[in-house]
Amino acid sequence: MPRVLVWYGELTAASSLARRGLFLLLPGLLWLLAFLLLPSLLLIPLSFAQRGAFGEVVWDFSLENYRRLLGFGILGFSLDNLLALGRTLWVAFWTTLICVLLAYPIAFFIRAQEGRRRYLFLALVLVPFWTNLVIRTYAWQLLLAPEMPLARFLVGLGLWEPGMALFPSAFAVYVGMVSAFLPFMVLPLYSSVERLDPSLVEAAQDLYGGPWRTFVHGVLPQTLPGLTVGVILTFIPAMGMFVVPDLLGGAKHLLVGNLVQQAFYTMRDWPYGAALSLVLILLTLVALRLYRRYGKEVDLA
Amino acid sequence: MLAVALFSFNRTRHGLSWGGFTLDWYLRLFSNEAILEAARNTFLLALLSTLLSTLLGTLFALGLERHPWGRGFRAFLENVLYLPVVTPDLILAAALVVAFGFLRAVSSLFEPGLLTMVIGHVTFQVAFVALVVASRLRSLPRDLDEAARDLYATYPVYLRRVLLPLLAPGIVAGAMLAFTLSLDDFVISFFTAGPASQTLPLIIYASTRRGLTPEIHAVSTLIFLVTVVLVLSAERLTRRAA
Questions:
Q1: Mean pLDDT rounded to a whole number for chain A
Q2: Theoretical Cys-Cys bridge with A258: which of A103, A254, B167, B180, CB 3.0 to 4.6 Å?
Q3: Chain A touched by B184 (CB under 8 Å)
Q4: How far apart are the first and last CA of chain B?
Q5: Rounded CA gap, A119 and A256, in Å?
Q6: How confident is the model at residue B79 (pLDDT cuts 50, 70, 90)?
Q7: Which residues 53-82 on chain A approach chain B with CB closer than 8 angstroms?
Q8: What is the rounded distance in angstroms from the CA atom of residue A192 to the CA atom of residue A186?
């Protein structure tokens, strides 16, 4: 006797309901299995293989790619890769921190607006979020060009050589990174700030808390969920970024993302690229793990 | 401090004023074969991948929301949906390059080109469509379904007359999201494009190497405007539906 149940007003057997459900799920599941999961898993064995003379894959298993990744190349030991790895974490960390520092005032500013104006400012935050990253980054190339006010201003102060663009430089990389990720920080943070209970902030102030203690005890705990989501949405993609450091950073500011891009695109060395990608995945997983532990579910909508 | 947003308006204006307040660049744009070709590719890619991902995503959302799965399986399905959202573009791109490389040995279909780009785009779009449609499904009250049943609607009739019309705003919103995601994408296209399938972001990227031309500013401005219009109309659509 099949198990029978009423589901959304329909009297059906549990098994036929499950069959129909699986039928609906199957195309999507198979697609993601074929083009997301399997390809990603393929990177693992590939990272132990070698590049052949013509860019083909030679299944000759060794730890060579990982040795190279750590800097033991044909030209002897070099720190470049390890520096790029460290720089990736460093840049992602500072990008995230700057975004947090900028996003709090923005979120509170938007919250302070009335009705339609609030939506207007939210939309203003969203616009760059929907603009192509390449266009945004190259827009910074324009803004940082020697003819532009910023460069002229710095020249006027005697801080910059005339006729020089402000990129490539670490400054330009941070400007590009922060502007790329700020919306990802502002939106989740705003959804927390919107629901913030102001009486707790007042309580902190009544108890003679300075601005810092008011923030730590009154604001931070309430906005923690939004903050965690923002940090994850910023930190993880920031580690995989290669467009910004490529266009604004120059050779001194390569990140792991650039190394991956070079391995796949310029050198055609897939196994090495796979090894680099896996390092990136590993960093991502660690970040997600931390999120699972400390983060809470937040409604992003 | 509301910054970023205002900057983006600024920037485009700079892009414009660079050309000296003239529409010449726009006119010239329409006689530039490479850019026109890229524009066609961009939209074709966005259109195809949106259609496919909307179909897959909607089916997935229906399967996820309207069937009594156990808690474990449901959690698994939700994780499957979040996987493409949290996977960095670059990783997906790298994995696809490798996978297509091996598939090429089986069939020449997987030469880098429009098809490989569509596959790449659909892969990250599906999850977004499914998430949007699923949230819409969750907000539909059960009574409607039950009323339809009480009136002896068969499953196909119920699907066509009740569920799909109610779900339409969610599906359209999901599709528009997918479309803009596709227009915005650079990383996936960069890795999976073939020589004959350049898109606008790829051309812009390449030209930042070769030196910027006012035409590129004009293209960027146009893409920017198209995206804003799309997003605003999607926004309006979802709000009216809500």
A1: 79
A2: A254
A3: yes
A4: 31
A5: 37
A6: confident
A7: 57
A8: 10
